[in-house]
Structure formats: C-alpha cells, structure tokens
C-alpha cells in the first residue's frame, strides 16, 4: 500500500516531526497496512518506531498487555480492546503515540459483530487519545483500507484539533 489521495499519513508525520514525537502501531484486521502507509512517506523513520501485527487474541494479551478477562468476556472486537492495544504498543515500543485497529473485515461475522464493525484507537501522552467505532461497508479490502484511513485521520485529529485537551472519547465512548 502506498500513500494515496486522502491519506493522512504525510500530514500526521509532519506534525509528529514538528513536535519531535513518535508513533507505534498495533494492528489486527489491517495486518500491517497502517504502518505500510506511514512508512511509504519519505522521512517516516524520524517518527515511526515500529509496529506489532497482533492478529491472534493471545498476542493482543501477551505482547500488548490487553486484559485477558476483557478479551474472554467481550472478544477482540471491542472499543476497550482497541484502547488497550494502542496503549500497549505505545509502551512496548517507547512511542509518544500508539495507534490500534481491531475489527471484522469479513467475510463472516466475528465475536457476534457484523462485517464492517471496526474500532480504531489512538493513545498519546498525558492521557490524550480516543477510540472510534466504525461501521464500514464493502468487501474485505475496502473495510481494511477504510480502517487505515480512519485510524490515520484519528491520529491527525488528536495531534491537531484536540492537542492538549483530554478527549472524552478516550474511554471508548462516542
């Protein structure tokens, strides 16, 4: 995947560079597409710390520190799981910002959630961050591509519009 029209990666990376901040990504349904979008931008190495593709539930729990009881009770497609994934990758890779994607790309429902149900999260310094629930239409490829676009838009929003303000969405509400 390369940065295309509508990608927020160049803008987000410019703000991160300007602030001398970094980002790390935890991806489930997007399977590495978010970090690919970020690293397609020249100069990304100044701000991108790395990524974890946490496709399996036990990787979310054991590597990213997502609460096992939460995963058992609600499954991986959950706003709190997304928030914990973002916080976990931020801590694991020593970044200022953590991003996360988790959801159902299809072709079948998962954890009782329909195809197109996605949660994207951003976790930043001093409790900054937000979780968004998406209800996306289209095939697997479109759901994944839109998830990438939305998590990068969320990061840019958190970096610019909500800078310094504690967002009420950080606990997973909309």
Structural account:
The protein is globular, with a radius of gyration of 14 Å. A hairpin with a 5-residue loop joins β4 and β5. The protein has a single domain (9-163), classed as CinA-like (Maf protein), CATH 3.90.950. The protein contains 6 helices and 5 strands; from the N terminus they run αβαβαααβββα. α1 (9-19) packs parallel to α6. The chain is of the alpha/beta class. Helix content is 38%, strand content 18%. The protein has a 5-stranded mixed sheet with strand order 2-1-3-4-5, sandwiched between helices. Mean pLDDT is 91; it is low at 164-174.
List keywords for this structure.
174 residues; 6 helices; Maf protein; 5-stranded mixed β-sheet; alpha/beta
Low-confidence stretches: 164-174
Please give the order of strands in the largest beta sheet: 2-1-3-4-5
**CATH classification class:** Alpha Beta
Largest sheet: 5 strands, mixed
CATH topology: Maf protein
- Put simply, the count of helices is 6
Overall morphology: globular
* Structural class designation: alpha/beta
The total count of strands amounts to: 5
Radius of gyration: 14 Å
> What's the average pLDDT?
91
CATH superfamily: CinA-like
The share of residues in helices is 25-40%
CATH architecture: Alpha-Beta Complex
Strand content: 15-25%
Oligomer designation: single chain
What's the N-to-C terminus distance? 29 Å
- Reading the helices and strands in chain order gives HEHEHHHEEEH
